[in-house]
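Question (not urgent): is this output format expected?
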Amino acid sequence: MTQKVVIFDFDGTIADTVDALVSIANRLAKEFGYVQITPEELALLRNLTSREIINYSGISVFRIPFLVKKIKGELKSKIPELKPIPGMKEALINLKNAGHRLGIITSNSKDNVTEFLRINELDNLFEFIYSGITIFGKTTIINNLLKQKQLKPEEVIYVGDETRDIEASKKANIKVVAVSWGFNSPEVLAKQNPNYLIHHPSELLDVVNNS
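Got this back:
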């Protein structure tokens, strides 16, 4: 087994934030000109790629960074209520104890992520947190990270819950683990051909050790 650098998405992958984010998005719907998300519509959206969701919403691509910024601001007050995905804390500890290096790339704010990790006693597990508005731009952030940390692509694995995570990882030539417990459905994730598709955090250690 060789040491890996395991980079996690945050929302929906580590933190169970989907319900909170939908609630905030619905409050902002009128201001940004899109329809509120019903439970039925959420089920539909889970089966769309990130690009298809943008097209479906009808919101201008130019307004998305402003929407994301507002959502991050409103999520700050909910951080104390949020919990890790069940089994995630144990999985992260196991990865760390096995000698792997852990980091986060997120479109959430670094302050929100740092506070969540502190509250849930996960802050000592992560080597770095990269934050940026990354609707389709995670590839650039991944490549910048590889360069800054002097990492070889074969040393790195990305773990995410959305189709855009798979897309970005492939473009950066790193392996990607898609997780079925976040935003996108297992079916739409599988269509993007990730290196691995897992259904519980307990599967992470075996996947990383054997990649």
